[in-house]
Specification:
The protein contains 11 helices and 10 strands. The longest helix has 24 residues. Helix 1 packs parallel to helix 6, helix 3 packs antiparallel against helix 5 and helix 3 runs antiparallel to helix 6. It has about 350 residues and is α+β, with helices and mostly antiparallel strands. The protein has one domain: oxygen-dependent coproporphyrinogen oxidase, CATH 3.40.1500. The strands form 2 sheets. The chain has an 8-stranded antiparallel β-sheet with strand order 1-2-3-4-5-6-7-10. Strand 2 and strand 3 form a beta hairpin.
Length: about 350
Protein backbone atom coordinates (compact mmCIF):
# COMPACT_ATOMS: atom_id res chain seq x y z
CA UNK A 1 0.00 0.00 0.00
CA UNK A 2 1.38 3.42 -0.99
CA UNK A 3 1.23 6.22 1.56
CA UNK A 4 2.06 9.91 1.42
CA UNK A 5 4.91 10.85 3.71
CA UNK A 6 6.65 14.02 4.81
CA UNK A 7 9.85 12.09 5.49
CA UNK A 8 12.23 10.87 2.81
CA UNK A 9 11.71 7.13 2.22
CA UNK A 10 14.66 4.79 1.99
CA UNK A 11 15.89 4.23 -1.55
CA UNK A 12 18.55 2.07 -3.08
CA UNK A 13 20.74 5.05 -3.89
CA UNK A 14 19.28 8.54 -3.99
CA UNK A 15 17.19 10.02 -1.14
CA UNK A 16 14.22 12.12 -2.18
CA UNK A 17 14.04 15.57 -0.68
CA UNK A 18 12.40 18.94 -1.28
CA UNK A 19 15.80 20.35 -2.19
CA UNK A 20 16.61 20.89 -5.84
CA UNK A 21 18.78 18.14 -7.26
CA UNK A 22 21.78 19.95 -8.71
CA UNK A 23 23.85 18.78 -11.65
CA UNK A 24 27.05 17.04 -10.66
CA UNK A 25 29.56 14.62 -12.10
CA UNK A 26 27.68 11.44 -11.20
CA UNK A 27 25.71 11.53 -14.45
CA UNK A 28 29.04 11.21 -16.27
CA UNK A 29 30.76 8.93 -13.74
CA UNK A 30 31.05 5.57 -15.48
CA UNK A 31 32.32 3.94 -12.28
CA UNK A 32 29.02 4.63 -10.48
CA UNK A 33 26.20 2.04 -10.63
CA UNK A 34 23.81 2.68 -13.50
CA UNK A 35 20.70 2.79 -11.25
CA UNK A 36 22.34 5.50 -9.12
CA UNK A 37 23.11 7.61 -12.19
CA UNK A 38 19.63 7.12 -13.65
CA UNK A 39 18.00 8.14 -10.37
CA UNK A 40 20.01 11.35 -10.40
CA UNK A 41 18.95 12.12 -13.96
CA UNK A 42 15.23 11.65 -13.38
CA UNK A 43 15.17 13.65 -10.13
CA UNK A 44 17.09 16.53 -11.70
CA UNK A 45 14.96 16.50 -14.84
CA UNK A 46 11.78 16.52 -12.75
CA UNK A 47 13.00 19.67 -10.99
CA UNK A 48 13.95 21.40 -14.22
CA UNK A 49 10.74 20.52 -16.08
CA UNK A 50 8.51 21.66 -13.22
CA UNK A 51 10.40 24.95 -12.91
CA UNK A 52 10.09 25.52 -16.66
CA UNK A 53 6.34 24.86 -16.75
CA UNK A 54 5.76 26.96 -13.61
CA UNK A 55 7.44 29.88 -15.39
CA UNK A 56 4.89 29.60 -18.22
CA UNK A 57 1.81 28.85 -16.09
CA UNK A 58 2.39 31.11 -13.10
CA UNK A 59 1.13 28.46 -10.69
CA UNK A 60 3.24 26.05 -8.63
CA UNK A 61 3.21 22.26 -8.70
CA UNK A 62 2.04 20.42 -5.61
CA UNK A 63 4.62 17.89 -4.38
CA UNK A 64 3.70 14.56 -2.80
CA UNK A 65 6.38 12.18 -1.56
CA UNK A 66 5.18 8.66 -1.02
CA UNK A 67 6.49 5.34 0.19
CA UNK A 68 5.74 1.88 -1.13
CA UNK A 69 5.26 -0.76 1.53
CA UNK A 70 7.10 -3.37 -0.52
CA UNK A 71 10.16 -1.17 -1.08
CA UNK A 72 10.97 2.27 -2.46
CA UNK A 73 8.65 5.13 -3.23
CA UNK A 74 8.46 8.26 -5.30
CA UNK A 75 7.86 11.96 -5.71
CA UNK A 76 4.79 13.12 -7.62
CA UNK A 77 4.27 16.71 -8.70
CA UNK A 78 0.87 17.87 -9.91
CA UNK A 79 -0.33 21.21 -11.28
CA UNK A 80 -4.12 21.20 -11.50
CA UNK A 81 -6.48 24.03 -12.50
CA UNK A 82 -3.57 26.22 -13.51
CA UNK A 83 -3.60 29.30 -15.71
CA UNK A 84 -2.27 27.38 -18.71
CA UNK A 85 -2.45 23.75 -17.60
CA UNK A 86 -5.76 22.08 -16.87
CA UNK A 87 -3.77 19.21 -15.39
CA UNK A 88 -0.06 18.43 -15.50
CA UNK A 89 1.84 15.72 -13.68
CA UNK A 90 5.52 14.83 -13.42
CA UNK A 91 6.17 11.71 -11.35
CA UNK A 92 9.36 9.96 -10.29
CA UNK A 93 9.22 6.38 -9.00
CA UNK A 94 12.12 4.42 -7.51
CA UNK A 95 10.91 0.97 -6.56
CA UNK A 96 12.36 -2.38 -5.60
CA UNK A 97 10.64 -5.56 -4.49
CA UNK A 98 9.27 -8.78 -5.92
CA UNK A 99 7.50 -8.79 -9.24
CA UNK A 100 4.50 -11.14 -9.15
CA UNK A 101 4.31 -13.81 -11.83
CA UNK A 102 1.30 -12.11 -13.47
CA UNK A 103 3.28 -8.92 -14.07
CA UNK A 104 6.45 -10.81 -14.97
CA UNK A 105 4.56 -12.79 -17.60
CA UNK A 106 4.02 -9.64 -19.69
CA UNK A 107 7.78 -9.10 -19.69
CA UNK A 108 8.84 -12.69 -20.36
CA UNK A 109 6.82 -12.57 -23.57
CA UNK A 110 9.19 -9.81 -24.77
CA UNK A 111 12.43 -10.82 -23.03
CA UNK A 112 13.66 -14.38 -23.42
CA UNK A 113 16.25 -14.00 -20.63
CA UNK A 114 13.56 -13.84 -17.96
CA UNK A 115 12.40 -17.16 -16.47
CA UNK A 116 8.65 -17.60 -17.00
CA UNK A 117 6.02 -18.41 -14.41
CA UNK A 118 7.75 -17.22 -11.23
CA UNK A 119 8.04 -14.21 -8.96
CA UNK A 120 11.19 -12.17 -9.61
CA UNK A 121 13.12 -9.62 -7.51
CA UNK A 122 13.15 -6.33 -9.40
CA UNK A 123 14.28 -2.71 -9.33
CA UNK A 124 12.91 0.11 -11.47
CA UNK A 125 13.38 3.85 -11.54
CA UNK A 126 11.65 6.17 -13.94
CA UNK A 127 10.09 9.50 -14.70
CA UNK A 128 6.67 9.86 -16.27
CA UNK A 129 5.03 13.06 -17.45
CA UNK A 130 1.70 14.07 -18.96
CA UNK A 131 0.52 17.64 -19.49
CA UNK A 132 -3.00 18.60 -20.61
CA UNK A 133 -3.31 22.35 -21.39
CA UNK A 134 -6.56 24.30 -21.11
CA UNK A 135 -6.44 25.76 -24.60
CA UNK A 136 -7.50 23.23 -27.27
CA UNK A 137 -4.92 24.73 -29.64
CA UNK A 138 -2.12 23.61 -27.30
CA UNK A 139 -1.21 19.90 -27.49
CA UNK A 140 -0.89 17.33 -24.76
CA UNK A 141 2.60 15.93 -24.20
CA UNK A 142 3.60 12.61 -22.68
CA UNK A 143 7.04 11.23 -21.90
CA UNK A 144 8.52 8.39 -19.93
CA UNK A 145 12.08 7.24 -19.28
CA UNK A 146 12.86 4.24 -17.09
CA UNK A 147 15.51 1.71 -16.19
CA UNK A 148 14.39 -1.78 -15.19
CA UNK A 149 16.54 -4.46 -13.56
CA UNK A 150 15.53 -8.04 -12.76
CA UNK A 151 17.41 -10.51 -10.56
CA UNK A 152 17.24 -13.76 -12.53
CA UNK A 153 19.35 -15.85 -10.15
CA UNK A 154 22.80 -17.10 -11.13
CA UNK A 155 24.78 -17.53 -14.30
CA UNK A 156 26.55 -20.76 -15.33
CA UNK A 157 29.48 -19.93 -13.03
CA UNK A 158 27.19 -19.43 -10.05
CA UNK A 159 27.56 -15.65 -9.99
CA UNK A 160 24.56 -13.38 -9.35
CA UNK A 161 22.90 -12.45 -12.65
CA UNK A 162 20.76 -9.43 -13.39
CA UNK A 163 19.05 -8.42 -16.61
CA UNK A 164 18.60 -4.70 -17.22
CA UNK A 165 17.00 -2.59 -19.92
CA UNK A 166 15.76 0.89 -20.75
CA UNK A 167 12.36 1.96 -21.98
CA UNK A 168 10.64 5.21 -22.77
CA UNK A 169 10.02 7.93 -25.32
CA UNK A 170 8.04 11.10 -25.88
CA UNK A 171 4.94 11.83 -27.95
CA UNK A 172 2.61 14.72 -28.78
CA UNK A 173 -1.19 14.67 -28.92
CA UNK A 174 -2.78 17.75 -30.51
CA UNK A 175 -6.51 18.31 -30.78
CA UNK A 176 -5.86 20.68 -33.68
CA UNK A 177 -2.96 19.96 -35.99
CA UNK A 178 -0.25 22.53 -36.62
CA UNK A 179 2.25 20.88 -38.93
CA UNK A 180 5.05 23.21 -37.84
CA UNK A 181 4.54 22.07 -34.24
CA UNK A 182 4.80 18.43 -35.27
CA UNK A 183 7.99 19.09 -37.22
CA UNK A 184 9.56 21.03 -34.35
CA UNK A 185 8.76 18.31 -31.81
CA UNK A 186 10.11 15.50 -33.97
CA UNK A 187 13.22 17.47 -34.95
CA UNK A 188 14.28 18.07 -31.34
CA UNK A 189 14.25 14.37 -30.51
CA UNK A 190 15.63 13.19 -33.85
CA UNK A 191 18.64 15.45 -33.25
CA UNK A 192 19.41 13.67 -29.97
CA UNK A 193 18.76 10.16 -31.29
CA UNK A 194 20.91 10.73 -34.37
CA UNK A 195 23.92 11.40 -32.14
CA UNK A 196 23.66 7.82 -30.88
CA UNK A 197 22.57 6.04 -34.05
CA UNK A 198 20.99 7.54 -37.21
CA UNK A 199 18.80 4.44 -37.54
CA UNK A 200 17.17 4.94 -34.15
CA UNK A 201 14.79 7.79 -34.95
CA UNK A 202 13.03 6.11 -37.92
CA UNK A 203 12.77 2.84 -35.98
CA UNK A 204 11.53 4.50 -32.80
CA UNK A 205 9.17 6.83 -34.67
CA UNK A 206 7.57 3.79 -36.32
CA UNK A 207 7.42 1.99 -32.95
CA UNK A 208 5.70 5.04 -31.45
CA UNK A 209 3.05 5.10 -34.17
CA UNK A 210 2.43 1.39 -33.66
CA UNK A 211 2.32 1.52 -29.87
CA UNK A 212 -0.01 4.50 -29.45
CA UNK A 213 -2.74 2.96 -31.57
CA UNK A 214 -6.32 2.70 -30.34
CA UNK A 215 -7.28 -0.58 -31.95
CA UNK A 216 -11.03 -0.43 -31.38
CA UNK A 217 -11.14 3.10 -32.88
CA UNK A 218 -8.72 2.36 -35.72
CA UNK A 219 -6.85 5.58 -35.01
CA UNK A 220 -3.66 6.74 -33.32
CA UNK A 221 -3.63 8.67 -30.05
CA UNK A 222 -1.55 11.53 -31.42
CA UNK A 223 1.02 12.56 -34.02
CA UNK A 224 3.77 10.41 -32.55
CA UNK A 225 7.30 11.04 -31.44
CA UNK A 226 9.61 8.19 -30.53
CA UNK A 227 9.19 5.05 -28.42
CA UNK A 228 11.45 2.22 -27.31
CA UNK A 229 11.02 -0.72 -24.95
CA UNK A 230 13.18 -3.61 -23.78
CA UNK A 231 16.35 -1.79 -24.90
CA UNK A 232 18.95 -4.13 -23.44
CA UNK A 233 21.85 -2.03 -24.73
CA UNK A 234 22.88 -0.40 -21.44
CA UNK A 235 26.14 1.04 -22.76
CA UNK A 236 27.42 4.47 -21.75
CA UNK A 237 26.50 5.85 -25.17
CA UNK A 238 22.91 4.67 -24.79
CA UNK A 239 22.62 6.03 -21.24
CA UNK A 240 23.85 9.46 -22.38
CA UNK A 241 21.41 9.42 -25.31
CA UNK A 242 18.50 8.75 -22.96
CA UNK A 243 19.79 11.43 -20.61
CA UNK A 244 19.94 13.92 -23.49
CA UNK A 245 16.41 13.05 -24.60
CA UNK A 246 15.16 13.55 -21.03
CA UNK A 247 16.91 16.92 -20.98
CA UNK A 248 15.14 17.97 -24.20
CA UNK A 249 11.53 18.12 -23.00
CA UNK A 250 11.39 21.88 -22.44
CA UNK A 251 13.06 22.58 -25.79
CA UNK A 252 10.60 20.28 -27.56
CA UNK A 253 7.41 21.49 -25.88
CA UNK A 254 7.60 24.96 -24.34
CA UNK A 255 8.01 26.87 -27.63
CA UNK A 256 4.83 25.16 -28.90
CA UNK A 257 2.99 25.83 -25.64
CA UNK A 258 3.89 29.53 -25.69
CA UNK A 259 2.63 29.87 -29.26
CA UNK A 260 -0.72 28.18 -28.61
CA UNK A 261 -1.71 28.84 -25.00
CA UNK A 262 -3.40 32.20 -25.65
CA UNK A 263 -4.93 31.54 -29.07
CA UNK A 264 -8.68 32.22 -29.39
CA UNK A 265 -10.99 29.23 -29.65
CA UNK A 266 -14.70 28.46 -29.84
CA UNK A 267 -16.91 26.40 -27.58
CA UNK A 268 -17.19 23.84 -30.37
CA UNK A 269 -13.39 23.57 -30.52
CA UNK A 270 -13.26 23.05 -26.76
CA UNK A 271 -15.77 20.22 -27.12
CA UNK A 272 -13.58 18.58 -29.77
CA UNK A 273 -10.63 18.77 -27.39
CA UNK A 274 -12.71 16.99 -24.76
CA UNK A 275 -13.68 14.26 -27.23
CA UNK A 276 -9.99 13.74 -28.06
CA UNK A 277 -9.27 13.59 -24.33
CA UNK A 278 -11.78 10.76 -24.17
CA UNK A 279 -9.67 8.86 -26.67
CA UNK A 280 -6.64 9.52 -24.45
CA UNK A 281 -8.46 7.89 -21.54
CA UNK A 282 -9.45 4.89 -23.65
CA UNK A 283 -5.87 4.20 -24.68
CA UNK A 284 -4.38 4.62 -21.23
CA UNK A 285 -6.92 2.42 -19.49
CA UNK A 286 -7.17 -0.31 -22.13
CA UNK A 287 -3.76 -0.58 -23.79
CA UNK A 288 -0.94 1.21 -21.98
CA UNK A 289 1.65 -1.25 -20.63
CA UNK A 290 2.77 1.09 -17.87
CA UNK A 291 -0.76 1.38 -16.52
CA UNK A 292 -1.23 -2.39 -16.62
CA UNK A 293 2.13 -3.02 -14.94
CA UNK A 294 1.42 -0.48 -12.22
CA UNK A 295 -1.99 -1.88 -11.40
CA UNK A 296 -0.59 -5.43 -11.27
CA UNK A 297 2.27 -4.47 -8.93
CA UNK A 298 1.31 -4.86 -5.24
CA UNK A 299 1.57 -1.63 -3.25
CA UNK A 300 1.54 0.64 -6.29
CA UNK A 301 0.23 4.16 -5.80
CA UNK A 302 -2.98 4.40 -7.84
CA UNK A 303 -2.96 8.22 -7.80
CA UNK A 304 0.41 8.22 -9.55
CA UNK A 305 -0.69 5.61 -12.08
CA UNK A 306 -3.84 7.57 -12.94
CA UNK A 307 -1.99 10.90 -13.00
CA UNK A 308 -1.87 10.70 -16.79
CA UNK A 309 -5.63 11.00 -17.19
CA UNK A 310 -7.07 14.41 -18.10
CA UNK A 311 -9.13 16.37 -15.61
CA UNK A 312 -12.11 16.39 -17.98
CA UNK A 313 -13.12 14.37 -21.05
CA UNK A 314 -16.18 13.82 -23.22
CA UNK A 315 -17.89 10.98 -25.05
CA UNK A 316 -20.58 11.79 -27.62
CA UNK A 317 -22.70 9.16 -29.31
CA UNK A 318 -21.85 8.70 -33.01
CA UNK A 319 -19.79 11.88 -33.19
CA UNK A 320 -17.95 12.64 -36.42
CA UNK A 321 -16.12 15.84 -37.47
CA UNK A 322 -17.68 18.05 -40.13
CA UNK A 323 -16.51 17.90 -43.74
CA UNK A 324 -13.58 20.18 -44.63
CA UNK A 325 -13.15 21.13 -40.96
CA UNK A 326 -9.91 21.52 -39.03
CA UNK A 327 -11.11 18.72 -36.81
CA UNK A 328 -11.48 16.38 -39.80
CA UNK A 329 -8.01 17.28 -41.11
CA UNK A 330 -6.54 16.40 -37.72
CA UNK A 331 -8.58 13.21 -37.49
CA UNK A 332 -7.34 11.99 -40.89
CA UNK A 333 -3.73 12.43 -39.75
CA UNK A 334 -4.53 10.38 -36.64
CA UNK A 335 -5.74 7.58 -38.91
CA UNK A 336 -2.63 7.62 -41.12
CA UNK A 337 0.74 8.51 -39.52
CA UNK A 338 2.88 11.12 -41.27
CA UNK A 339 6.65 11.18 -41.69
CA UNK A 340 6.86 14.75 -40.43
CA UNK A 341 10.48 15.40 -41.21
CA UNK A 342 10.04 14.28 -44.79
CA UNK A 343 7.04 16.61 -45.07
CA UNK A 344 9.33 19.49 -44.16
CA UNK A 345 11.55 18.89 -47.18
CA UNK A 346 8.69 18.64 -49.67
CA UNK A 347 7.87 21.70 -51.85
Amino acid sequence: MATTSSASPEFLYHPLSEDKVSKDSIEFDTSAPLPKRMEHVILRVQDEICAGIEAVDGKKFRTDKWEREGGGGGRSRILQDGNVMEKAGVAVSIINGTLPAAAAQQMTERNAELPPGKDLPFYVCGISLVMHPRNPMAPTIHLNYRYFEIDVGQDEQGNPKKVGWFGGGADLTPSFLFEEDARHFHTVYKTQLDKRDPTWYPKMKKACDEYFYITHRKEHRGIGGFFFDDLTDTSEETFQCIRNCANSMLDAYVPILKLRKDMPYTEEQKEWQQIRRGRYVEFNIMYDRGTKFGLLTPGSRVESIMMSLPLTARWEYMHSPKEESWELKTYKVLQHPVDWLKVESEP
